[in-house]
Amino acid sequence: MFESLQRSFDAAHSWLFEEAVQPVMFAVGAAGWLEEAYPATEWFLLGIVQVALLYAVLRPLEARFPAEPWTDRRGTGVDIVYTLLHRLGAFSLLVFLLLRPLAEAATAWLRAHELTPMNLDALWPGVTDVPIVTFAIYLVVLDLLDYWLHRAQHRLRWWWALHALHHSQRKMSFWTDDRNHLLDSLIIDAIKAAVALAIGVEPAQFVGLLVAARIVQSLHHANLPWTYGLLGYALVSPVFHRVHHAIGIGHEGRHRGCNFAVLLPLWDVLFGTADYRSTVEPTGVRDQLPPPQGSRRDYGEGFWRQQWLGLRRMVDPAA
Fold it and tell me: What is the SS3 assignment for 300?
């Protein structure tokens, strides 16, 4: 069955590229980018499949088992815009492909000076170069990188000015994962792409790693009261991550927050930032609250205002 689905997807990918993308690129004089456009087309189709599956599975679950019942869904619509931009717009893949020539030049320089570039899948021939093992190694390494990048987003004032947009959602749902300032996303994706290239990740592997990570992230942003029981010590659960988004805990608590892990809570346990409370806490940022608890700060309701406010606060924290 899997092979049949793969063949169908490959056929749709080839058809879309040959019948739509390729003619347009020739028409606008961008034929030199055809090699990059082919994986980008695959990413676009994978994005469509992701969004459709997430909606079909998680939307009914949120309706049936809500962690926090809502009387309406107002304020969640803009998160759909972010999801479509990030899942279909190929931000991560674009950054990866743009950085690849630099990585190839750096590799050539290292070889010219008789230095061997790092390649994790070559560490243990016959074991680490087995595709599933290689995928798992890269996933764990990039997840550890995600953990420390996430802590930096909360620690550095200018970066928090951007990342606060993600935390400002008072009605968390599976759409919330991609609710990020575009500059924030570009910084994260550029760093991850650079590290991925440095450790030997190929473009096809990078796409697979991103898809796997983002599907799990959509699940643990979902409005669900699940802790996963014992499995919650091996994989981030919706409640575990909801604590990270909780007012007064997720940013304002110890270590300027807790539960920073993206996939594996192991990192929070190892570095002392894990909080396994199982209560369903309200989400948001404390300064959104009315006085005296907060300052009723505006994070914007529409996409463009949210983007503008993030940039403005990077320069002027009081804005």
Answer: coil
